[in-house]
Amino acid sequence: MTELKYLSGFGSEFSSEDPRRPNALPVGQNNPQICPYGLYAEQLSGTAFTAPRHDNKRSWLYRIRPSVIHKPFKRHAVAKYLTHNWDEQEPDPNQSRWLPFDLPPAASHVDFVTGLHTVCGAGDARSRHGIAIHVYLCNSSMEKSAFYSSDGDLLIVPQKGKLRITTEFGIMEVIPNEIAVIQLGMRFSVAVEGPTRGYILEVFDGHFKLPDLGPIGANGLANPRDFLTPVACYHDEEIPGFKLINKYQGAIFVAEQNHSPFDVVAWHGNYVPYKYDLARFMVINAVTFDHCDPSIFTVLTCPSTKAGVAIADFVIFPPRWSVQEHTFRPPYYHRNCMSEFMGLILGSYEAKEGGFLPGGASLHSLMTPHGPDDKCFNGASYGELKPQKIAVGTQAFMFESSLSLAITKWGAETCQKLDAKYYECWQTLPKLFSDKINV
Prior knowledge:
By secondary structure, the protein is mainly beta. The protein has helices spanning 374-382, 409-414, and strands spanning 6-8, 14-17, 40-45, 58-63, 74-75, 96-98, 116-124, 129-138, 145-149, 153-160, 163-167, 170-174, 178-182, 188-191, 196-203, 227-230, 238-248, 251-259, 264-269, 274-277, 298-303, 310-317, 320-322, 339-346, 361-364, 388-390, 395-401, 406-407. A hairpin with a 2-residue loop joins β11 and β12 (170-174).
C-alpha cells in the first residue's frame, strides 16, 4: 500500500493536486469558465463570506461531479443511539464514571456511523450553539457510504484500533494517541481493522483553534507545523446506490447517488480536515511549587463569545516530569464552573488508578466536587518529593465545556456501564484535623 502523504501546518493556505492530473488547479482564479480536465469548481465555506479575514475559512474543490448530484435525503435510523435530546433523563449532578464501553459482538457488522452513541451534551444545533459527546463502537468498515455532519466539527479521539479516513481532500490514517478533526460539512468514510473504539467531541458553535499562548511566548503546547492535512487523491468510480449519510439537526438522513463523493482531483484553501500526534505536544509545567492551571494542557479550543471562555477545550495529560517542592502533586480537590468529561486512551490516570480505565469515561458536572481518591491522596501526601516522571505509558484527555451537560438515556441506562459505586472512592478519606500545626 502506498505511504500516505500530508501537508504540514494549522490554519494554513494549502493547495494540492492528485499527481495523476497535473495542473488541475486553475491559475490566477477560482472558477474559470471551463476548468482543467472538465472538472467542476465547488466552494466549501466554513464561515460566512463576510467573516474577518483572520477567521475566514473556505476551500475550493475541483471535482469530477458536483456534490449536488444525489437523490433526496430521507430520514433514517441508521444510528439509533445518536441523539440531541438532552431531556431524556432527569438532571443528575452526581459524579459519573463509565466502565469501558462494550465493543460490538464479533458476529455483528457495525460500522463507524452505526456504532455512534451519544453520551452527553448541551445546546441546540439549530441555533448553532452547544456540543455533543459521542463514542464510536464498531468492528466493520463503511461500505458504499459516506458521512458528514451539518451540525458541527467532529474531533475524533481513537482509543482502540486504527482509522483509515477517506475524505474529499484525501486520505489519512489515525491511530490511538493521535486525533483527527473533520470539520462541518466535510464528507468522509471510515475503514477499520477489527474491533474499534473511540471518543468524539462535536461542537456546534464554530471551529477549533490553537489556544493563545500569552506569556508562554511564540512556541509551545501544540505547534502548528505538527498538524497534518491529507493530499488530493481522487476516486473516479461509478457506485450505484452509494449512500450519503447526513447528520442534520441531530437526526440522520440518507440520500443515494451513483458515484463516489471522493472525486476531488485538486483543491486549495484553509478549510480542511487534519490530524495531530499527541506525542508531539510540548508540555509546560511548574518547576518550583504548586500547580499551573490545567489550561496549560490545552491542545485545541473552540472559543465562545465571552473572552477566555470556551464552548469546548480539548485537553490532554501526557507523560511529563513532576518536580514541585512542598506541593501535593496530583490534581487537587476542585469544584469548577466548567463541565469536565474525561476519557482514557491508554495506561492509568494518576488520580484514580483503579476504576478509571481505557475505553471508559467520567463526567464531573458544573460545581460538582472531584479530585484524587483515598489511595492517591495518601500516597501523594506522605511520599518522598523527588523528581519523578509521571503518566509514563498513559494518555488521559478531557473535553471541557462552559455548558452544563446532560447525560442521554443510552449513557445513563442502556449502555449499562455507569458505575454506581464511583462515589465510594472518596468515602474513606480520613479526617486529619488536629490541634497541632503539623500532623
